[in-house]
């Protein structure tokens, strides 16, 4: 019968093969710091990502930039409210610096304009659907008022039929603009992986 090993012996055997690689840890920490810096920049807590990156040792700047890039790229998305536009604008501008391609600066500006246009169109769609649905909503209000014996007003966003109709229209709009966001992300990724001064 074989010797029964204690849990401590098993754990020690497993950890013998794991050696702490100081360089890997430093690169991992730099990447995490880059993510933090990107969020601080987007929130307006720091003014220049470039200056913050230059403060770090050359050996970790690549990982730091990767962390910054990952966060900035994740912010290339459709806005939900007008306040999101400012964050998208800051993230897009910072992304143009990180990918180090002059051509991406123009893409970043255009993307911000498209996202503003997207919010305007979404608001327009909602208003148009409300107007289109208004007669049906009034009919539902009258019917409910008759049943309950008192005047009732229904918020369109509380009506499942209206919400489904609005969602259908907004989904088509989102698809078009999401395609633009995806293209911007792909171009940023391409330029970041193979920098070219264009």
Structure description:
This protein has 198 residues and is mainly alpha-helical. It has a domain at 100-198. The protein contains seven helices and no strands. The termini are far apart. The relative contact order is 0.10. The mean pLDDT is 85.
The pLDDT mean sits at 85
Shape: flat
Instruction: Report the helical percentage.
Output: over 70%
Q: Hey, roughly how much beta strand do the residues contain?
A: under 5%
Rg estimate, integer Å: 26 Å
Total beta-strand segments: 0
Largest sheet entry: none
Brief overview:
This protein has 198 residues and is mostly helical.
Question: Keyphrases for this structure?
Answer:
single chain; mainly alpha; 77% helix
Topology diagram in text:
Elements: H1 7-16, H2 22-42, H3 49-54, H4 58-74, H5 83-99, H6 102-148, H7 160-193
Helix pairs in contact: 2-4, 4-5, 5-6, 5-7, 6-7
